[in-house]
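Summary of Year 1 activities. Much of the first year was spent building the evaluation harness for sequence design. The harness presents a backbone, in tokenized form, and records the residue chosen at every position. We chose the following record to illustrate the format because it has been used consistently in internal testing since the harness was completed.
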């Protein structure tokens, strides 16, 4: 399993965990980061009309991963949004942004599922 831990050292703060899974509970890739950093990256994605199943719709409605383990069914859309903000991401969030792109790309390449949960 590949793992990117950007949360260690921040224990006690809200955490977002993304997992790429092939079968139920078979984790291929895991990214852990501060919820604040995840929110800051999402806030850079331009406003628009978003599908009910999109990451951005759930971000704006404080739903999805805020309520428990949530499946991102629109991985390609999320990945494209992350790529589109490459030049907007402040250096302080660069590692988190890169980790998000890596896990999305891996899920797309492996035709696996992507889950997000806030802990």
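For this record, the design step produced the sequence shown next.
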């Amino acid at each position: 399993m590949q793992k990117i831990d950007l949360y260690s050292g921040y224990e006690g703060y809200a955490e977002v965990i993304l997992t790429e899974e092939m079968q139920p509970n078979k984790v291929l890739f895991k990214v852990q980061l501060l919820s604040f950093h995840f929110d800051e990256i999402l806030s850079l994605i331009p406003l628009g009309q978003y599908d009910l199943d999109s990451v951005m719709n759930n971000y704006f409605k404080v739903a999805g991963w805020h309520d428990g383990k949530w499946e991102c069914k629109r991985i390609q859309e999320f990945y494209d949004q992350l790529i589109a903000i490459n030049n907007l991401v402040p250096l302080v969030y660069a590692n988190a942004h890169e980790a998000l792109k890596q896990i999305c790309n891996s899920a797309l390449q492996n035709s696996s599922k992507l889950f997000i949960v806030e802990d």
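The mean pLDDT is 95. Quantitative recovery figures across the full test set are reported in Table 2.
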